[in-house]
Amino acid sequence: MMKYIAVFLSLCLSSTIVSADVSLPPLFTDHMILQQQTHNAVWGWADPNEKITITASWGESVTAQADKDGKWKVMLPTPKYSTDHTLTIKGKNTIKINGVAIGEVWLCAGQSNMGWALGQSFGGEEEAQSATNANYRIFKSAREHWHEPLDQSHDRLAKWSRCNPTSAASTSAVSYYFGRKLQKELDIPVGIIVQAYAGTPIEGWMPENIQQDDPRLIETVAQLKANSKRLESKGITIEAAKAQYDKDLKNYNAKIDRGETMKNKVRALKPPTIVKPSILGHQYPGHIYNAMINPIRPYGIRGAIWYQGERNSKNVPQATNYRNQLAKLIDFYRSSWYEQSEGNTDPNFPFYFTQLPSWNPAQTQPVEGLEASWAINREMMRLVSYDVPNSGVAVSIDTGDEVLLHPKNKKPIGIRLAYLALKQTYNKKFVDYGPRHTKQTIKGNKLILEFDSVGSGLATGKPGQLNSFAIAGKDQKWHWADASISGNTIILTSVNVMSPVAARYAWAMNPSQRNLLYNKEGIPASPFRTDDWPLFNENDEIVTVHKPSKPKGYQAKDWDRPEMTQ
Questions:
Q1: Backbone phi and psi for residue 187, each to the nearest 5 degrees, phi listed first
Q2: Average pLDDT for 284-291
Q3: CA-wise closest residue to 104 among 82, 126, 77
């Protein structure tokens, strides 16, 4: 049955994949940006065996021949950063791409908080109004998923644009602030490729076949197949879904052909998707990768930023597994991009990710337990930043919202991701991290923590004493600690713990309202622990995180935090 569906749906796409005219994927449009000083992949479709010539205004010309399926690809050398170039692709027909820039290109991927628009964020409308910048390029495609890898996105309206009030307001806020900071500090053209899909687990962002031994994937697939089976009795079958999709796709393409794509100067048309049954839906492993990552490989990139994890932190066992999943995703993206680009993309390209922000009621206990799965996910990300070379984590516990899963304070996150890239990728003189714990020493009833990445010095988030640390003795019972800063160390004590053995910091779903630890550059420390005690036991009852109820008239408010000085 699935084989039949694959053939049917592939036939639905055949008119966009193979045609008499030379055609290109949406990444190749006016105002595009190519990664500087490398060989960039340029690809498309034509008649089988047709000869294609690609000529660039900077003096390079390369040729290709379409294979028996009409596909072709070349590796085009690019010079040092520059602007106002053209790219001409000639076969039986000719396509000329204008306004091409050469500079730095970054992939920006993840779920809804990565996709959250600048115009919906705190200060975003004002920021967008002054966002005109010809040296900042934005590419954003619609949300898509598919049951097998696509060569070409269904999104016929995706295209590059120069940064302007309209393109800025509608793009990812985190990605916008990241790219804007890079462009300002590097003073060269910068482009972001935004690929975001709300409510998606990490297993959807990489091929199913590389996750076969992952317990989370096994559990997910079993649940999705069971859900699909139950829907059959209600008439929601694979056959019905494919028939509806075929109808919707034809309608979508017809509207584009008629020019019915905009409403009030805003894009009003997106490609169709299959929601049910779930084995064809966006939660199924590999389906986001198939439609949103595979079609853009191997476009030349410098690196990637990632903001995802909420969907994989519904409980502590899920969150604990994220360490392995994130490391596997990074490894696959790097190795496959390197392979697909014929060795022209760095096999160890930088990959920076966002730690989950604060959510749920503010912390009241020294250490939260099985109800605090987001604290576990943060720890897994912190560990991945040490496990995986050329990676880094942007801390965001001082952003978020007690009620809303989609907080509106995105600017600090984008800037902190940029700090990581500016320091680690571009060797600029930036402090990239908040204080990072390096060593623990015990002297009597004192537990002393040493830190690096202190910048100009350790600091508190607000006036008064730090109140976000907890310590425990051998009994593993946690108590609030009295904390004092001494140089690059913090000294912890508690009248309830005469012989401390371990410390934890900001270990809760929402530690944001405590007095948090920063450096004087305004970057917060990541939550961490010095113990290696089990985070859960197999016999523990699973506690699921639930979305808080939203009070009538609730309005999101930004939180106070130290100003970032860089």
A1: 60, 40
A2: 96
A3: 82
Q: Is the pLDDT of residue 2 over 60?
A: no
What does the alpha-carbon distance between residue 514 and residue 74 come to, in Å, rounded to a whole number? 55
DSSP 259-303: T--EETTEE--------SSGGGSTTSTTHHIIIIIGGGTT---SE
Verify cis geometry, omega within 30 degrees of 0, for the bond prior to 298: yes
**Residue 258, C-beta contacts closer than 8 angstroms, at least 6 positions apart:** none
Q: How many Å apart are CA 400 and CA 2, to the nearest integer?
A: 42
Each residue of 137-166: pLDDT tens digit?
999 999 999 999 999 999 988 999 999 999
Query: What's the rounded Cα separation, in Å, for the pair 153 and 295?
Result: 6
Question: What does the alpha-carbon distance between residue 383 and residue 3 come to, in Å, rounded to a whole number?
Answer: 41
Please say whether the beta carbons of 407 and 357 come within 8 A: yes
CA–CA separation, 272 and 156 (whole Å): 12
Residue 537 C-beta-side C-alpha neighbours within 13 Å? 3
CA within 13 Å, CB half, 330: 28
| Both tokens assigned to 53 | 């010539």
* Axis crossing angle, helix 411-420 with helix 173-186, rounded to the nearest 10: 50
- Confidence check: pLDDT of 217 > 60: yes
Question: Computed from CA positions of residues 307, 308, 313, 316, in that sequence, does the dihedral angle turn out positive or negative?
Answer: negative
C-alpha dist (Å) from residue 352 to 97, 126, 381, 385? 31, 27, 10, 8
Residue in the block written with tokens 């060989």: 39
Of 505, 363, 426, give the one whose Cα is nearest residue 186: 426
User: Given CA atoms 525, 528, 529, 530 in this order, what sign does their dihedral have?
Assistant: negative
Who has greater pLDDT, 218 or 50? 50
Burial class (CB in 10 A: 0-12, 13-18, 19+), 60: middle
How far from each other are the two terminal CA atoms of the chain, in whole angstroms? Answer: 57
Q: Mind listing the pLDDT tens digit for each residue in 444-486?
A: 999 999 999 999 999 999 999 999 999 999 999 999 999 999 9
The pair of three-digit structure tokens given for residue 305, joined into one six-digit string:
């930023």
Of the listed ranges 55-59, 243-247, 295-299, 537-541, the one predicted with least confidence: 243-247
d(CA 117, CA 198) in angstroms, rounded, equals: 12
- Nearest alpha carbon to residue 394 among 503, 320, 309, 504: 309
Q: Is the dihedral of CA 107, 283, 12, 161 positive or negative?
A: negative
Please give the mean pLDDT across all residues of the chain.
Answer: 93
The confidence score (pLDDT) of residue 432 equals: 98
The two structure tokens encoding residue 496: 């309830």
Give the confidence band of 268 by pLDDT, cuts at 50, 70, 90. low
Q: What is the distance between the alpha carbons of residues 539 and 409, in angstroms, rounded to a whole number? A: 38
Identify the CA nearest to 307 among candidates 425, 196, 424.
Answer: 196
Judged against a pLDDT cut of 80, whether residue 419 lies above it is answered with: yes
DSSP per residue over 502-513, as a string? EEEES-SS--TT
Region 3-8: mean pLDDT is 39
Please calculate the CA angle 316-319-322 and round it to the nearest 5 degrees. 155
Tokens of 262: 């905009």
